[in-house]
Amino acid sequence: MAAVIEFVEGAIRFLFVNAVSERKFDEKGAYGHALSHCMKAVDRIVEFEDKYLFIEVKDPQGDRSHTEKENMAFVAQFKRGELDADFKCKYRDSFLYEWASDRAEKPIYYYVLFADETLDSALLIRRSHALESQLPVRGPRGVDWPRPFVQGCGIFNIASWNKRFPDYPVTRIDGTGAP
Amino acid sequence: MPLTSLQLQNFTAFAELDLAFSPGVNILVGANGTGKTHVMKVCYAACEASKPGAPLFHQKLMNVFLPSGRRAWRLINGPARREWMREGAPASPKVSVNVFGDNFSIRTVIPIRGFRGERLPTNGAPIESVYIPVKEMLSNAPGFLSLYAEREIHFEEVYNDILLRAYRAFPRAEPDKNRQGMLTAIEESMGGKIRRVDEEFYLSNSIVRSTAMDIEFTLLAEGFRKLGLLWLLIRNGSLREGSVLFWDEPETNLNPTLFGVVVDVLLELQRQGVQVFLATHNYVVLKEFDLRMQKSDNVLFHSFYRTEEGEIACNSTTDYLAIEPNPITEAYDDLYDRQIERSIRGRA
Question: Which residue among A66, B134, B171, B254 is buried most deeply as judged by most CB within 10 Å?
Fold first, then answer.
């Protein structure tokens, strides 16, 4: 049954219209992921009637556990592409986990929300392109997979996420909604 | 002695413009046809007209703008010109140009109907300036100056002027540490120093001695010709404390990997007291300034745009993220939107 689903990841509130369910996929504990010693995991999985969304969230501005200097270094790492491999592994392992759990029966989309206001479109293009080419969306020799490994993917900041997905709005929980 | 502001009335692309400058770096962005080059040419003409024995300001404006047939009325802003040409129109429109600096001001009223112009008061000391036009000229230098002096060839005077700057002899004194630092950075990027034999320029490869050979500019990559010109202007002292550099689209023919060294040199020139103006359409140039400038640097972004009424206006800000409108990043917004659309919907 489709419904409006809302959850908070870190300091960001997500709202999904017409979703079926959502899981905190990287949940710790006996009833959580439970294979974190050998498999990486995206933050959330949202199920719709016709698809799954795998969602990874990075919010250096909202992370109070690190100093401002550490957060700036983290953003710089992202801009240099040093997190690309991590994004790739999180999707691959999450996909394998779900496939082996007999749950990857619908098309899967993978979206990374990197909530930093200094990311402009040129930087987002570069990182989205890197993610798309690493996963990869298409199969060998540029031919579509008979069974797609990932239906689509992209990297967003808050402003570009809200522009692209008006039905899945995100806001900071302090209510600013600032990109 | 930096320029501080500019006022234009009914001049070329501008009905009215009142613009304040940074004493450091001024970066002009805007879509084609929003007057960035015109602003730089006006300011350059003001600097040139400030020198003893120089042509009158309005004459220098004519020389650097080069309107067809050297007809001054072609420099009148479009709506004012159409109004003036209407039958029974009143007197000529007022076309004025005012440039101000620290203890400096120069102004002119463009003479429309055969008025010969007058030397309006210029206050302050002369300002040394350099204008680097879009088209590279060093490879075409041999014979150009004499041709320009003797014949009516259709080149804006900035092309003649830049060669005059490039041909200047080096000062007797060796470059100081800061200047040498800039020269070395450019030499490492282009692989040598610039040497002149008669009127011809060469890249003299003194860094990699095993392949030492002079390369004439006509055989040299266009990007290195641009770096070579910058090297010459620093080495011969044309760009020194108190001077003003105008550079139109430095990105032209330059590989983006070389933008970093160019931006570093421009920021260092600013720290040495050179006021810098540059017009750019390039994201990497803009971003390099954003990433390389220090808190103590004076960098001002000027965004030229057309209002809903069709007039050209300008917003200025010191904050890269606050540039508004920013046609350079807007172009990337569009690319990003389309890439995401393709990534999500699939390539098919």
Answer: B254
Task: Name the one residue in this structure whose structure tokens are 């290195």.
Answer: B224
CB contact under 8 A, A153 and B343: yes
Instruction: Tell me the range of A19-33, A141-155, B1-15, B16-30 where mean pLDDT is highest.
Output: B16-30
Residue A6 half-sphere exposure, CB side, CA atoms within 13 Å? 6
Q: pLDDT of B289-306, one tens digit each?
A: 988 999 899 999 999 999
State whether the Cα torsion A137-A142-A144-A146 is positive or negative.
negative
Are B339 and A125 inside 8 Å of each other by CB?
A: yes
**Whether B124 contacts B105, CB under 8 Å:** yes
Beta pairing class for A108-114 and B312-317 = unpaired
Q: Where are the domains of chain B?
A: 1-128+240-348, 137-238
Cα B94 to Cα A104: distance, rounded to the nearest angstrom: 73
A38 min Cα distance to partner chain B (Å): 29
Please work out, in degrees rounded to the nearest 5, the angle formed at the alpha carbon of residue B124 by the alpha carbons of B117 and B66. 40
Residues composing chain B: 348
Give the ipTM of the model, two decimals please. Answer: 0.76
Residue B211 has pLDDT above 60, yes or no: no
Residue B133: cis peptide before it, omega within 30 degrees of 0: no
Residue B11: how many CB atoms within 10 A of its CB? Answer: 25
The mean pLDDT of chain A is 89
Query: CB-based burial of residue A39 (10 Å sphere; 0-12 exposed, 13-18 middle, 19+ buried)?
Result: middle
Domain boundaries, chain A: 24-165
pLDDT value of residue B72: 82
Partner residue facing B329 (CB), from A122, A152, A153? A122
| CB pair distance less than 8 Å for B343 and A121 | no
What is the model's pLDDT at position A140? 83
Contact predicate B10/B80, CB 8 Å: yes
Which of B132, B137, B155 shows the shortest CA–CA distance to B217?
B137
Which of A65-69, B66-70, B225-229, B280-284 has the lowest average pLDDT?
A65-69
Q: B298 versus B94: which is more confidently predicted?
A: B298
When pLDDT is cut at 50, 70 and 90, the band that residue A126 belongs to is confident
Please check whether the domain covering B1-128+240-348 is classified as CATH 3.40.309.10.
Answer: no
3-state helix, strand, coil in chain B (%, to 5): 40, 20, 40
- Rounded to the nearest angstrom, the minimum Cα separation between B344 and chain A is 4
Q: In chain A, whose CA is at the least distance from the CA of B343?
A: A152
| pLDDT score, position A179 | 44
Q: CB contact, 8 Å: A159 with chain B?
A: no
What residues of chain A lie within 8 A of the CB of B329, using their CB? 120-122
